[in-house]
Specification:
This protein is an alpha+beta fold. The protein has 4 helices and 11 strands, in the order E-E-E-E-H-E-E-E-E-E-H-H-E-E-H. The strands form 3 sheets. The protein has a 7-stranded mixed sheet with strand order 3-4-9-8-5-7-6, sandwiched between helices. Strands 1-2 form a two-stranded antiparallel ribbon. Strands 10-11 form a two-stranded antiparallel sheet.
Length: about 200
């Protein structure tokens, strides 16, 4: 429950439902085990509800890791239902648009993180595809195909999701060498008329 004071009166409103979609139990997961759609980039606020729900559905959560590019801060620990969940960040091995969850049983979930400002219809489509055991695409590939999935960094700057199948250095839209003049290009060559003016 969330307590709100309006005109001096305390009103209790239910907490918003957790937006989580997991692959069906017993199914062999695809590249992802499901998706989570947080409401903000504040992990201190968002993670306790996610960890509590996964504790109940999946087993006691021991550790959660994220890529820090998407988050304002990454707390070291969060309290969840009588125990502490350790949190951390990885940049080299953690997908930019994923969250990894490990339980005390040696189990691991990799979830697509749907950007908070994504439109509801697009988010539902992304979550369903990420939880589909037949899915073979990565989190970045799913988001690259969804134009309304606005991905912002922890400062709130919105960036396009780069399609991982397109090299950044061969694509004009990413400002690689093919979109800029080559340094070895000497520019326009003088014509015979220019030589006469020297």
């Amino acid at each position: 429950m969330i307590m709100t004071v309006i005109d001096g009166a305390m009103l209790a409103t239910p907490e918003p439902a957790l937006r989580l979609c997991l692959a069906p139990d017993g199914s062999r997961a695809g590249r992802l085990d499901g998706a989570w759609w947080p409401r903000s980039h504040d992990l201190s606020f968002e993670l306790p509800a996610l960890a509590a729900e996964l504790d109940a559905q999946w087993g006691r959560v021991a550790r959660i890791t994220v890529n820090p590019a998407q988050w304002l801060t990454v707390p070291r620990r969060i309290p969840v239902a009588g125990h502490t969940v350790h949190t951390g960040w990885l940049t080299a091995v953690q997908g930019r648009h994923t969250i990894s969850v490990r339980s005390h049983l040696p189990r691991r979930l990799t979830l697509l993180v749907v950007p908070p400002r994504t439109e509801a219809v697009a988010a539902a489509r992304l979550m369903a595809e990420a939880a589909d055991p037949a899915n073979t695409r990565t989190a970045s590939e799913l988001l690259a195909d969804e134009p309304s999935a606005k991905v912002s960094d922890r400062r709130g700057i919105v960036w396009p999701v780069r399609d991982p199948s397109v090299s950044a250095w061969s694509s004009a839209r990413w400002g690689g060498p093919s979109s800029s003049p080559r340094r070895s290009d000497p520019g326009p060559r003088p014509t015979s008329g220019d030589a006469d003016q020297r």
